[in-house]
Q: What sequence folds into this?
């Protein structure tokens, strides 16, 4: 796949939103969790913050452990100082210095690279917990998260399967929607971590309708005054009038009709083999994907490293890299920081729009 030029990529990433400088002169404070210390999280956080451009658009504060981040800096050969602070307002916010909020005092925890460990799961969880506390107290405007490992979280006895569940439960959010954004494409998900069979069963009129309401609300919160939403078809050619399945007729179309009656600009179902291409061209503001891989494949094929996950519906914005802990390369200093940089940029851009 041909990569876009630098100018094209910049324009597409901004999409229909205003640039940060045109929204506000005040830079947003972005909390950055370091993720699982046994993975590449600390490395990509440190590497990302060696990019001076990020300091032009936000005030980054890392939430993590000094020992893990210093180890990462040593592996990378990065010349950075660490400024240990107790509140974000004490940050220096200048290139070459990483302002660090201590997530836990468990400095004696021994963490090996590339392994599932309860200690690593506890540390990763504490980073998330502190970011939630800061977000709820409005000490930060948004959070950008490095990857955690679900097995390590489970080994630590943490009663959540992943980031989204933690943020939704611990903030008391009425709902938590996942949106993938890459260039000019925004994709929401009706279902995520379900088997394909269970995901198909979950495509009900009630669920599609309620999700469309949430998507419309979330998009308005991001600055779209009259958001246009396309719903992807479930079956080939959206069922071809019932020839290849009747879920579109029984469940999806009635839900769209009900949403339209409530003033939501929703269309579809649009065949999944064309809906994402048309969305990239700007025909709609967002697409509702009906199951995990349907939307993941479309966005990650377009640009794997710059596909960013955004959690909406929370009291504050949360973005995330959309890759895992990469245990196989952790500690080698070779992990790309492109996705982490992009997660920080998206957090800064969207949080500015929300504040405007």
A:
């Amino acid at each position: 796949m041909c990569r876009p030029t630098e100018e094209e990529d910049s324009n597409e990433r901004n999409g229909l939103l205003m640039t940060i400088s045109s929204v506000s002169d005040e830079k947003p404070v972005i909390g950055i969790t370091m993720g699982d210390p046994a993975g590449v999280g600390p490395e990509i956080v440190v590497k990302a913050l060696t990019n001076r451009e990020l300091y032009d658009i936000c005030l980054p504060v890392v939430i993590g452990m000094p020992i893990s981040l210093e180890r990462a800096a040593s592996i990378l050969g990065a010349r950075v100082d660490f400024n240990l602070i107790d509140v974000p307002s004490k940050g220096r916010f200048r290139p070459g210095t990483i302002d660090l909020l201590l997530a836990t005092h468990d400095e004696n925890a021994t963490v090996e690279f590339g392994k599932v460990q309860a200690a690593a799961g506890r540390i990763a969880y504490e980073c998330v917990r502190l970011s939630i506390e800061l977000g709820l107290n409005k000490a930060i405007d948004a959070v950008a998260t490095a990857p955690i490992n679900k097995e390590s979280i489970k080994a630590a006895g943490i009663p959540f399967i992943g980031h989204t569940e933690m943020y939704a439960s611990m903030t008391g959010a009425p709902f938590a929607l996942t949106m993938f954004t890459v260039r000019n494409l925004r994709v929401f998900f009706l279902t995520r971590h379900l088997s394909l069979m269970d995901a198909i069963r979950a495509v009900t009129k009630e669920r599609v309708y309620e999700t469309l309401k949430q998507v419309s609300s979330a998009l308005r919160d991001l600055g779209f005054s009259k958001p246009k939403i396309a719903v992807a078809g479930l079956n080939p050619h959206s069922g071809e009038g019932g020839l290849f399945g009747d879920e579109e007729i029984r469940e999806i179309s009635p839900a769209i009709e009900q949403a339209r009656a409530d003033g939501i600009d929703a269309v579809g179902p649009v065949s999944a083999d064309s809906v994402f291409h048309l969305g990239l061209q700007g025909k709609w503001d967002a697409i509702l994907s009906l199951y995990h891989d349907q939307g993941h494949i479309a966005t990650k094929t377009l640009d794997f490293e710059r596909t960013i996950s955004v959690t909406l519906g929370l009291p504050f914005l949360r973005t995330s890299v959309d890759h895992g802990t990469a245990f196989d390369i952790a500690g080698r200093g070779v992990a790309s920081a492109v996705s982490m940089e992009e997660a920080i940029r998206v957090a800064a851009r969207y949080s500015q729009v929300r504040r405007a």
